[in-house]
Design goal:
With about 675 residues, the chain is of the alpha/beta class. Strands 9, 10, 11, 12, 13, 14, 15 and 16 form an eight-stranded mixed sheet that branches. The longest helix has 19 residues, at about 70-85. The structure holds adenosine-5'-triphosphate (ATP) and magnesium ion. Magnesium ion binds next to α2.
Length: about 675
């Protein structure tokens, strides 16, 4: 039956509507929506999905790619909400069919499992997160004798970054080294050897790292037959936040839909903040010309999110960028409240100020959930987290130390992974060494024995453990056997692992009770997954954010505050936003070492942060802050200068305040305040 009158389109402005209805009825030319923050790009994309479905598109044949799993879930919900205006109760049935919504990486993982046998992979492959990848890289460094301290060979993380950059940017090693890692350039031959061995090891162990999910997918898509087959599984491919995709992702898209039919991408070049992970702003800028006929381009310039003063301040910040972003946004949301630029004494005062402000807002009726605190790097929120905990303000932290990064959660997941894929040596080493008395050498023997045996469990059972391990050995063998036989049906697997792990947990880690709580929570998460494999894949790719090491994750419907790195806050919005440490050395983070392009990316980062705010925005400037882990210098205090991204002539857009207003007892505080003023003046003299 035909849809009701198109009232679901009536809330859109003319150009949003144009984008939504683009190509209606016919095979659509590719479409690019390029527009500034808060102009309704994501909203338009959601409406477009509804529109396609209402007009007969099969939701199972729509591929929707977002920047994070959370964004995908939110998008699906939004689609359902909009659809219910037209379809009523039938909306959910329809959006249930929208199963291909996720990140490039998760979609890649799913497709690769489908096609594994066709491309020489074992479908039981497990996935390494960045830490696992670095561990494997390290293992191989040792094997190749490249890790001797006197040789000053790059650290494992650096090796992985170089490798990853080269893969994602599809750039030769030479070029990557010259451009981004010049200090590693004389290691080019050794690095090549290392990476070759790394690739071999991954294959031997049947593991894929994050980059492989894109790389294998891109390679698969280069094979004409597969490209055709996969491409024709989808009538529509829609991508949000396209400015932060890399060369591989663009190549994949192009291979699946060479003529761009049914492709819609959406993004904002002024918000490109992932170049450090090889995202390439050229993708979005060159998109229209990648097709014949060229893609349709729709721009939007009305911002629906922020009040006029917030937008004016954000525009003033981005106007200083070297690159010209010509999309000047306007809004009808009048307000007299300028964003606040708050000078505080130090990190502690910053935490107090922010907590006070948040609580006052809550008193005035703004729920915690409508407020967010954003920061450049995850450790910037330390003092604030302490203060929030002290005052009993519940919060969830995103983008920082993920739930999954905590050692105990990794131990448990590695156990599952090892059972899923006994060739996964990183997982194997981790699990086996949980047993007292097992070191790398015996662990290596065990894994080898399992690999040469006909069946890994038999290999394990046949092994004679040394005396010192004897006590804990049988328990492990039984567990492994159980997990392999999958006799314990999912998700009770996880409970088995926990029960086996608990004594080790108490032996290895402090605060065992809190950690046990995390594991219980993991079981709850697992209950939502149909299979062990899906659970492991999803969690490895995009772990749930929770700061269980701090306040503990609040209950689902409780009111809680958002703490997030700016990177993870992308695409979202809150009524009130507080940005910490808007001082040189934090934003931008890379002083001195900072090349121009890196500085420019930091500027866009501040722009992203500011444009998250709807009604109220606070930029915090501690005069004194703590810098952790300065190479070779240890932790130290430094004095903060207002971020260079807020030049003097932009100050008119802010309400400047100093807090606390009264002179403090601490001479240090007073002195640092004077020095800041003087330095700012000196700098001003030259501008
Ligand atoms: P970002 O660049 O930050 O990702 P965006 O361009 O994707 O932003 P959205 O998140 O889609 O913007 O929309 C911003 C806000 O504006 C949302 O609250 C959305 O509901 C609202 N909005 C978008 N379009 C309209 C419209 N036509 N009428 C009213 N509100 C709108
Ligand atoms: Mg968006």
């Amino acid at each position: 039956d035909s849809p009701k009158p198109v009232d679901y389109l009536s809330s859109l402005n003319e150009r949003q509507r144009l984008a939504v209805e683009h190509g209606s009825g016919k095979v659509a030319r590719p479409l690019l929506i390029i527009a500034g923050a808060g102009s309704g790009k994501t909203n338009t994309l959601a409406h477009r999905v509804v529109h396609l479905i209402v007009n007969g598109a099969d939701p199972r044949r729509i591929l929707l790619m977002t920047f994070s799993r959370r964004a995908a879930v939110e998008m699906t919900k939004r689609v359902e909400r909009i659809a219910s205006q037209v379809l009523g109760d039938r909306a959910s049935v329809m959006t249930d069919g929208l199963t291909w919504a996720g990140t490039f990486h998760s979609v890649g993982a799913r497709l690769l499992r489908d096609y594994a046998l066709d491309i020489g992979l074992d479908p039981a492959f497990t996935i390494h997160d960045r830490e696992d990848s670095a561990d494997l890289m390290n293992l191989i460094r040792h094997e190749l004798g490249l890790s001797k301290t006197e040789s000053r060979f790059p650290a494992k993380q650096t090796c992985l970054s170089i490798y990853s950059r080269s893969v994602n940017a599809q750039a030769p090693l030479d070029e990557v080294l010259a451009d981004d890692f010049p200090w590693c350039h004389n290691w080019v031959d050794e690095l090549k050897k290392l990476f070759a061995a790394y690739v071999e090891a991954k294959q031997a162990q049947n593991v894929l790292d994050y980059d492989d999910l894109l790389l294998y997918w891109a390679e698969l898509a280069k094979e004409a037959a597969f490209a055709e087959e996969i491409g024709s599984r989808f009538d529509h491919i829609l991508v949000d936040e396209y400015q932060d995709t890399n060369r591989l992702q663009a190549a994949i898209l192009l291979a699946l839909k060479p003529d761009g039919s049914g492709v819609t991408v959406v993004g904002d070049d002024a918000q490109s903040i992932y170049a450090f992970r090889a995202a390439d702003i050229r993708n979005i800028l060159d998109f229209p010309k990648s097709f014949t006929p060229e893609a349709e381009v729709v721009t939007l310039d009305r911002n629906y999110r922020s009040t006029e003063p917030i937008l004016a301040a954000a525009n003033a910040v981005i106007a200083e960028a070297e690159e010209r972003f010509t999309k000047d946004l306007w809004t009808e949301r009048k307000s007299s409240a300028k964003p606040a630029l708050v000078t505080v004494r130090d990190d502690t005062a910053q935490a107090t100020y922010v907590c006070d402000a948040i609580l006052a807002e809550r008193e005035a009726g703004t729920r915690l959930k409508e407020q967010a605190v954003l920061f450049r790097t995850t450790h910037h929120s330390g003092s604030l987290e302490v203060e929030l905990t002290r005052r009993n303000i519940p919060f969830v932290k995103f983008g920082g130390l993920k739930f999954l990064d905590s050692a105990h959660v990794k131990d448990v997941l590695a156990t599952l992974r090892f059972a899923e894929n006994p060739r996964d040596r990183v997982a194997g080493f981790r699990v086996l060494q949980l047993l007292p008395g097992v070191g790398p050498s015996f662990a290596g023997q065990v894994i080898d024995a399992m690999e040469t045996a006909l069946d890994p469990t038999m290999g394990l059972q046949a092994l004679r453990a040394p005396q010192r391990v004897a006590e804990d050995w049988p328990g492990f063998v039984t567990l492994f056997d159980e997990l392999r036989r999958k006799s314990s049906s999912w998700p009770s697997d996880l409970e088995h692992v926990r029960l086996w792990y608990e004594p080790h947990l108490e032996r290895i880690h402090e605060s065992a009770a809190a950690r046990r709580g995390d594991l219980m929570q993991l079981e709850q998460i697992a209950a939502g997954y149909p299979s062990r494999e899906r659970f492991l894949t999803d969690l490895t790719l995009d772990p749930p954010a929770a700061s269980s090491d701090h306040a503990g994750p609040p209950h689902r419907d409780d009111d809680y505050l958002f703490l997030s790195t700016i990177h993870s806050a992308k695409g979202q919005e809150w009524k009130n936003v507080y940005v910490l440490n808007v001082v040189d050395g934090c934003i931008p983070a890379c002083l001195g070492a900072g090349e121009r392009k890196e500085i420019e990316e930091e500027r866009r980062l501040l722009y992203v942060a500011m444009t998250r705010a709807k009604d109220s925005l606070h930029l915090m400037m501690p005069q004194r802050f703590y810098v952790e882990n300065q190479v070779g210098r240890g932790d130290r205090h430094v004095y903060g200068l207002r971020s260079r991204f807020i030049p003097d002539h932009a100050l008119q857009h802010f309400e400047q305040t100093t807090w606390p207003v009264a002179e403090t007892k601490s001479g240090m505080g007073a002195r640092s305040r004077a020095s800041v003023d003087l330095r700012a003046r000196m700098r001003g003299a030259w501008s």
